């Protein structure tokens, strides 16, 4: 497979529409698959029917307090119940797109009858969801791991229908594309046929629509809407940095509160997709940009996001929006501004020097604040780099090149942040028990 083919395949695999936070989405997806495998009675009249759900600590953390699309509810128990009563696995990451009020009522009948049992799995995997739907005789079982829509096991009482060795599943997460130097990938993106990447333009429109919803309606923390009001009052200026903050935060306000609109995700995260694309939308509002350049900028942003997440983990104690997607947006903005290789890499150096300390304490409405910070930093880092201001090697974890710096960030994430992750989870569990 050529490098250009690898890029196209990766973009098609990793850039997908998703409705709702991808952690409860993935749980509902696993539950719906197990439900479809179960041949027994799914009604409450079956006294032995039960749904057992075990998730990795990171899935639990990110699904604990985030809104479910089409509902006013949050959390993985609700997502699991909806997976039984309303969801079909063929809908993939858009599994919540047809939720009704009646579905929510039926889901709560299951929850109140204590038919949903949720626990944290004893695993080091970042993305792991194991579901068994069944009774004392019949069952359907599914496991998702590695990616939010990647099944590694499908089983019934009659035997295993599909199984992927853990080592195979783990290696499947390591995309050889991400081992290429960042600038080499950018150069290859510049040469791709437009027809091969124009599908990426859909993401701009999708994410812009949910941002506009967040600006026009009361949802989430109203971070984007409140900042926008201050621009109309003349307190904040209507410039690129503020437009980036406002659009990105507004989209997160809507998404984290459970608005039933899809977003174009990036590397398994809707918020990453929002952060990777909306600063570019903000730039295009004041600067004429062709569809060809917009498609290439999107490709660059998604790829940089993927490179960094392959180093820190798809789920991490570091905020992926802050250190990965925001960096992707900054590199893409620099590219649109005509950056040299040094300036493109400078955007990475500036972003990682700035945002590395941002932790992920789960998906929730407060994420819109972090996305606003990341979008603002993306613009700032690009403009500083274009002006020759680049954090030099030896400042903290900043390496000689952008690729070195990203590797250093990965070392930090792998060797220091697992402890942080566990402490964050413990604090969140304390809140639940209060």
From TrEMBL:
<dbReference type="Pfam" id="PF03313">
    <property type="entry name" value="SDH_alpha"/>
</dbReference>
<keyword id="KW-0456">Lyase</keyword>
<comment type="similarity">
    <text>Belongs to the UPF0597 family.</text>
</comment>
<feature type="domain" description="Serine dehydratase-like alpha subunit">
    <location>
        <begin position="92"/>
        <end position="426"/>
    </location>
</feature>
<dbReference type="InterPro" id="IPR021144">
    <property type="entry name" value="UPF0597"/>
</dbReference>
<dbReference type="InterPro" id="IPR005130">
    <property type="entry name" value="Ser_deHydtase-like_asu"/>
</dbReference>
<dbReference type="GO" id="GO:0003941">
    <property type="term" value="F:L-serine ammonia-lyase activity"/>
</dbReference>
<protein>
    <recommendedName>
        <fullName>UPF0597 protein QE109_08445</fullName>
    </recommendedName>
</protein>
């Amino acid at each position: 497979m050529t490098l250009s083919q690898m890029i196209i395949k990766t973009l098609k695999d990793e850039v997908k529409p998703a409705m709702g936070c991808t952690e409860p989405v993935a749980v509902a997806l696993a539950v719906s698959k197990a439900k479809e495998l179960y041949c027994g009675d799914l009604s409450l009249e079956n006294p032995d029917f039960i749904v057992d759900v075990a998730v990795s600590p990171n899935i639990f953390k990110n699904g604990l307090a985030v809104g479910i699309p089409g509902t006013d509810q949050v959390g993985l128990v609700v997502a699991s119940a909806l997976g039984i009563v309303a969801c079909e696995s063929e809908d993939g990451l858009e599994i919540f797109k047809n939720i009704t009020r009646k579905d929510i009522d039926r889901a709560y009948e299951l929850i109140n009858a204590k038919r949903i049992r949720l626990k944290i799995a004893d695993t080091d995997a970042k993305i792991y969801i194991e579901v068994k739907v069944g009774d004392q005789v019949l069952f359907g079982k599914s496991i998702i791991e590695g990616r939010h829509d990647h099944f590694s096991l499908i089983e019934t009482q009659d035997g295993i229908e599909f199984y992927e060795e853990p080592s195979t599943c783990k290696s499947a997460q390591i995309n050889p594309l991400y081992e290429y130097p960042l600038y080499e990938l950018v150069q290859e993106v510049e040469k791709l046929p437009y027809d091969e990447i124009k599908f990426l333009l859909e993401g701009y429109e999708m994410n812009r629509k949910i941002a506009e919803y967040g600006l026009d309606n009361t949802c989430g923390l109203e971070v984007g809407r409140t900042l926008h009001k201050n621009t109309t009052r003349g307190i904040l200026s209507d410039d690129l940095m503020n437009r980036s903050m406002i659009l990105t935060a507004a989209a997160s306000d809507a998404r984290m509160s459970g608005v039933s609109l899809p977003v174009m995700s990036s590397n398994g995260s809707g918020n990453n997709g929002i952060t990777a694309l909306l600063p570019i939308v903000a730039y295009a509002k004041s600067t004429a940009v062709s569809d060809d350049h917009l498609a290439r900028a999107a490709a660059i942003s998604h790829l940089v996001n993927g490179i960094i997440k392959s180093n820190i983990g798809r789920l991490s104690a570091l905020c992926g929006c802050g250190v990965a997607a925001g960096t992707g947006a900054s590199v893409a903005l620099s590219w649109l501004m005509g950056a040299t290789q040094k300036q493109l890499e400078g955007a990475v150096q500036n972003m990682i020097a700035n945002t590395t300390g941002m932790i992920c304490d789960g998906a929730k409405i407060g994420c819109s604040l972090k996305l606003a910070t990341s979008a603002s930093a993306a613009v700032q880092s690009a403009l500083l780099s274009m002006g020759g201001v680049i954090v030099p090697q030896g400042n903290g974890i900043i390496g000689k090149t952008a690729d070195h710096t990203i590797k250093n960030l990965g070392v930090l994430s792998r060797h220091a942040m697992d402890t942080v992750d566990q402490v964050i989870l413990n604090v969140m569990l304390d809140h639940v028990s209060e």
